[in-house]
Amino acid sequence: MNTNNHDERIAKMTFASVYPHYVTKVEKKGRTIDELQQVIEWLTGYDGKKLQELIEQKVNFEAFFQQASLHPNAHLITGVICGYRVEEIENPLTQQVRYLDKLVDELAKGRKMEKILRVP
Questions:
Q1: Residue 80, beta-bridge partner list
Q2: 3-state secondary structure string, the chain?
Q3: How close are the terminal C-alpha atoms of the chain, in Å?
Q4: Is the pLDDT of residue 23 over 50?
């Protein structure tokens, strides 16, 4: 796979197009939208109100993460998502999007919130 095309596709995807999939994924596993928003806020610094604005503005992932205040412990997010080791992804934006995917995945898999939020 050409990683440049892959990275570009991810950058141009809108957060609004992916968010409903996150919601479906976590709710199907008995988690709540509040928990999902808590996870997103931990990673990005966006509260529910700001998240809603970004969804309404249909920002792409590039703009979504440019405006975010990435959590200082985000680098502790490791493991495989979509066939890639998160910690080995070279493109910073793609890595940040995969951090988010990984957190949503952990939430859906029933991990404890302290573990997801990398509480020491």
A1: 85
A2: CCHHHHHHHHHHCEHHHHHHHHHHHHHHCCCCHHHHHHHHHHHHCCCHHHHHHHHHCCCEHHHHHHCCCCCCCHHHCCCEECCEEHHHCCCHHHHHHHHHHHHHHHHHCCCCHHHHCCCC
A3: 37
A4: yes
pLDDT in tens, 39-94: 999 999 999 999 999 999 999 999 999 999 999 999 999 999 988 899 999 999 99
What does the chain come to in residues? 120
pLDDT of residue 2: 58
- State the amino acid at position 35 in one-letter form: E
Q: Give 58: exposed, middle or buried? Use CB within 10 Å, 0-12, 13-18, 19+.
A: exposed
What is the largest distance, in Å, between two alpha-carbon atoms of the chain? 37
pTM: 0.93
